[in-house]
Amino acid sequence: MKRKYAALILLCLICAQARGNMIMEKSERTMKVFYTMNDREGWYAVLTGKIISYSSKDEYDAADLFASAQDKSKATVRLYSAEGIHEGDVLYVINDKNLIVAKMKVRTVFKSPSFGDMLVGYGNFRLSSIGDRVIRKAEEEDSRYSYIFKARGDFYENTGRRGEAIKEYKTALKMDKKNPSAHLALGLVYMEQGLDQFALRELKEGYRAINYLYDNEDRFLLLRSLAEIRFREVYESFVPEKLKESYRREGITFCKEALRVYPKSERMNYYLGVFHYRAPEPDDKIARDYFLKVLDINPRHSGASVALAELYYRHDNMKKARGYAEKAIDADRTNRRARDILKYIESKKQLD
């Protein structure tokens, strides 16, 4: 019986090892690589993984006029760790003599139940073989530790030590300039300080890598923040009208993407209503629908009620205009816009 238990434990350990990532210390993975046999300088690299298969990639380059599948243009790589590796990163393939035989662009990173962290990369792999090693430049290796400094920044931000938080977020981005969580965190700090242009720069960098934000709450927060800045620029700033229209279109895009993550956001629905209602060429029907969604979510949203009152007044529907103006006043007794609409309705009634 004991032998059976021992055999079972050994089998579990073997299976667990097969499912996990390959383990190797960083010092063991660091090496010098060369472009040719005559290259005396070379450069330092860190071993990232090993190629386990080749195939033809399933999409074609824009420059490929014949759209023909090229043999050995797609490689599957088993990774030591996926931390710090992103879609679009450039990695290299080396042979047993540490000579670079191919360059690849990361297409996707994923986790396999059998092999752990994996990636698929595209490139020309005619000179490489299965089992060849995949490397990255040594200076890029630090990107896998970026999350540690991001976590430190969160701690300082949550304990009111904002200066130290900013420093840690910036360190995280020095280690991994594509870290969307660090860009988002730094952008939110700048927004709270009223530094919208600095915030926009960080948030847009985070947006470029939004696919690596695995938390839907963070995705929504990023998109909502971008939409909020664009909303303020369009309706609360003095930028040229041509720019405002560009910002309005961007704001609509961010709002719609945010609603795909969280459809019941009253703020995003309200922004979309305003973006369409106060456009150079208004679309009152679309605006009305968004404002009605806001009231479905929050019946006491005075901004949506007064906007609907103005819409119906514009279309000479005084009954509905009055109803929504009164609804706005019921939610907010100090709402001057709603009271003005009621005055306009009374004046129009007297003239009729």
Verbal overview:
By secondary structure, this protein is α+β, with helices and mostly antiparallel strands. The chain has a domain at about 25-140: Elongation Factor Tu (Ef-tu), domain 3. It has 13 helices and seven strands. The protein has helices at about 1-20, 25-30, 145-160, 160-175, 180-190, 195-210, 215-235, 240-260, 265-275, 285-295, 300-315, 320-330, 335-350, and strands spanning about 30-35, 45-55, 75-80, 90-95, 100-110, 115-125, 135. The protein has a six-stranded antiparallel barrel with strand order 2-3-6-5-4-7. Strand 4 and strand 5 (about 100-110) form a beta hairpin. The radius of gyration is 28 Å and the shape is elongated.
Primary descriptors:
single chain, 352 residues, alpha+beta, Elongation Factor Tu (Ef-tu), domain 3
Sheet having the most strands: 6 strands, antiparallel, barrel
Helix content: 40-55%
CATH topology of the domain at 26-141: the name is: Elongation Factor Tu (Ef-tu), domain 3
User: Counting H and I runs of at least 4 residues, what is the number of helices?
Assistant: 13
Cα distance spanning the termini: 99 Å
CATH architecture of the domain at 26-141: Beta Barrel
Order of helices and strands: HHEEEEEEEHHHHHHHHHHH
Residue runs with pLDDT of under 50 for 5 or more positions: 1-20, 65-69
Mean pLDDT, as a whole number?
A: 87
Broad CATH class of the domain at 26-141: Mainly Beta
Over all CA atoms, what is the radius of gyration?
28 Å
Q: Using DSSP, what is the number of strands? A: 7
Category from helices, strands and their pairing: alpha+beta
User: How would the global form be characterised?
Assistant: elongated
